[in-house]
Design brief:
The complex is a heterodimer of chains A (about 400) and B (about 90). Chain A has about 400 residues and is of the alpha+beta class. Chain A is built from ten helices and ten strands. The longest helix of chain B has 23 residues.
Chain lengths: ~400, ~90
């Protein structure tokens, strides 16, 4: 019988994971956390911090070493996103979209595309953006309609993409559209004639993530820039990118959740009310207990999803949906409770928790809304139970689906 | 005495059974014709294509790449079996 595939990237030891997580947290404490509030206010991330991240290899950490990446396993990628999520959700968005674009090209790109684009992406010389969402079409890929038409030696692109993270400063875009009845994905360099980048400002959260609307007016795309094949962009190319986007977002939300927890316990133990601290109040303890339990559950779910990707098992997509669904919702609850615990101070723009509160909501929307996740997961769980014939006479499942 | 042909038939049967078992565990049907078109019948969800790809990569030590993107390679149990056998060199 044919032997199964060994792990694609050798998994690091738990000690190495722990050491790298410490390194990432130290980086965030030094280069990210002290500046995140200012970036949020300025609605931009300075190039200098991206340059330091590039030097550390963080922007191409999941790509193989032979294209200039770090070749780190996905558990390590998850820990990186968790650490950055604690400091700045907007900056973590750069890690998210860089991975989405890089991994889609790594999987489905031609040799020429890999040679041309992966080294600069791996080394962080350029940032890529994943151009999927349209002004009138959100999470459901099948309603997308950015038309490509054929020309003599390539394609002509028209239409618009909106809410594109890092769109303001990306050097290239992986753009999804339609070619007749087929979905198609193409690499479109920023300098392409007919492409106009319009910054989007005044967002609720992710304010520094450089969101943009992209307008394509008869943009010529060489045939050699098509990623995958026409007809497979929505079934194969986009899911690979979105999958890494969900892993990144799940772990980033986990980091934000940790931030809420740490800020809350610090405040609860410090803040005095007469002779007692806020943490002595049962009602506050309830909020913190819920937050801490969600944090532990989120850690396990994120680790499970990252491990599944490292092991390359088919249920990785389901585990990742579960992790992203859980941590994004838990982050919203925790951020709300963290503001509640700090009271008026938590409502001021200078508090980390007020930024967490705004950023957390974005986590429930990007890479598939909570409702899209519920639709997919609800159907998966019901179908799974039906297949097992695990519904007892009372109508209740005899054994639950792992989640 | 086993011939080379017996061995090839045995491998083909194993690949077909393993593939059929995975597909049946992923879609909402209890029986499946080995030639039934999975993508035309509406029985698969939006993640099925990448789940199937991941399954065959993991189980049969195959790397599915851009050149393999052809519906004819994955449209049914038999099509997927043929694809795996061609990629692994077990067929001919």
């Amino acid at each position: 019988m044919i032997e199964g595939l060994p792990p694609r990237i050798a998994e690091a030891s738990p000690d190495l994971h722990s050491a790298r997580h410490d390194e990432f947290k130290a980086f965030v404490a030094r280069h990210v956390a002290p500046c995140a509030e200012q970036w949020d206010r300025d609605q931009r991330i300075p190039e200098s911090v991206l340059a330091i991240m590039a030097q550390c290899g963080y922007l191409g950490c999941s790509l193989p070493k032979d294209v200039g990446g770090k070749g780190w396993d996905v558990v390590t990628f998850g820990l990186l996103n968790e650490a950055f999520g604690r400091g700045s959700a907007a900056l973590t968005g750069v890690l998210t979209v860089q991975a989405m674009v890089s991994m889609a090209i790594l999987k489905w790109g031609t040799s020429q595309q890999k040679r041309a684009w992966l080294p600069p992406l791996a080394e962080g010389e350029i940032i890529g953006a994943f151009a999927l969402t349209e002004p009138d079409a959100g999470s459901d890929l099948h309603f997308h309609d950015t038309p490509f038409t054929e020309s003599s030696d390539g394609l002509i692109l028209n239409g618009a993409k909106k809410w594109i993270s890092c769109g303001q400063f990306a050097a290239m875009y992986l753009v999804f559209g339609t070619l007749g009845k087929n979905s198609v994905a193409c690499i479109v360099p920023r300098e392409s004639r007919g492409l106009r980048v319009e910054p989007i400002a005044e967002l609720l959260g992710f304010r520094a993530a450089g969101l943009a609307e992209l307008h394509f007016d008869d943009v010529f795309v060489p045939a050699s820039n098509v990623v995958g094949k026409p007809g497979f962009a929505l079934s194969h190319v986009a899911p690979v990118g979105l999958h890494y986007g969900r892993i990144s977002t799940a772990c980033s939300a986990l980091g934000l959740l940790r931030g809420c927890f740490e800020e809350s316990v610090a405040h609860a133990s410090r803040r005095k009310i007469g002779d007692i601290t806020v943490g002595d109040l049962g009602m506050i303890r309830s909020l913190i207990a819920r937050m801490g339990t969600d944090l532990e559950a989120g850690r396990l779910l994120c680790h499970s999803a990252c491990r599944a990707e490292d092991e390359h098992v088919p249920d990785v997509f389901e585990r990742t949906l579960v992790a992203k669904y859980f941590t994004s919702r838990a982050a919203v609850r925790a951020a709300s409770d963290a503001v509640q615990i700090q009271g008026a101070a938590g409502c001021h723009g200078s508090s980390a928790v007020s930024r967490y509160y705004r950023d957390a909501k974005i986590m429930e929307i990007i890479e598939g809304t909570t409702q899209i996740h519920e639709d997919i997961l609800g159907k998966m769980f019901v179908d799974h139970a039906s297949r097992l014939g695990a519904v007892s006479n009372s109508g209740a499942p005899e054994s639950g689906k792992r989640a | 005495m086993h011939t080379q042909r017996d061995e090839a038939t045995s491998t083909e049967q194993q690949v077909r059974e393993t593939t059929r078992r995975f597909i049946l565990s992923s879609i909402q049907v209890t029986r499946l014709d080995d030639d039934a078109n999975l993508f035309e019948s509406g029985i698969v969800n939006s993640l099925f294509a990448v789940q199937l790809m991941t399954f065959i990569e993991k189980t049969f030590a195959i790397e599915v790449g851009m050149d393999d993107l052809d519906v004819e390679n994955f449209k049914s149990v038999n099509a997927t079996t043929g694809f795996v056998l061609r990629k692994t060199g077990a067929l001919g």
